[in-house]
Write a structure and sequence with these properties.
- There is one protein chain.
- By secondary structure, the chain is of the alpha+beta class.
- It has a domain of about 140 residues: Ribbon (Umud Fragment, subunit A), CATH 2.10.109.
- About 20% of the residues lie in helices and about 25% in strands.
- The protein is built from 6 helices and 12 strands.
- Strands 6-7-12-8-9-10-11 form a 7-stranded antiparallel beta sheet, with no helix packed on it. The chain has a 3-stranded antiparallel beta sheet with strand order 1-5-2.
- It starts with a helix and ends with a strand.
Amino acid sequence: MTDFNSVLNRMKIATQAKTQTSLATILQVGKAAISDAKRRNIIPADWYLKLSRPPYRLDPLWLETGHGLMQIPQDSALEPNASAPISSDFQAPSNTPFEVVPFANTTPSSSGGSLDLDTPRETQYAFARAWLEKNGSLPHLKLLRVSGDSMRPALHDNDIVLIDEAQKDIRDGKIYAIRIDSNLVVKRVAKKPGALVLISDNRELYDPFDIDLHLGPSLEIIGRVVWMAREAL
């Protein structure tokens, strides 16, 4: 069952509405509409729809549950011409239930290509703080955009991954961002004596390969992938 007060609080936080009256103005409803909805414990569907549009572009799932992204990603099906989710100078107040995570300025190639320098992004994504604290280390989280098809079907070209740079210990079968010399790749990793095995999910086109920890190229574990997202076409 929907927790009306929690949803209403997220609406007020995200729109910076100080009172129910100001939120009613944003939702373009009468002053009594919110009190009536609260009495019935029902959030009207058109409220979610209105807040999913610019300038707020709030994700209905986040409004409903507090989980995931606060705002609808750019180029989403709901808003194909939407601007980036949150400006880089946005700072979440300490009393809000979400935390913003920035994009790193590099793109890892899941096909093993050379390191691509990415134009510094003007955006960052918002996540429920409780979810981030449960799944990663807040100061060490960064977003990266994947390129290539070697990790299909788990990861597609242009997918977004959340990397926890505090999780560098290898857990067999998990996905990591790894720097090999000047290359940055995203692969599943397995351990064997004296080496790491980098594994692509797209086995038909990409074979696993070993990296000798003693004689091989310079290798650095950047961090583990703890979340991914695929923007709608």
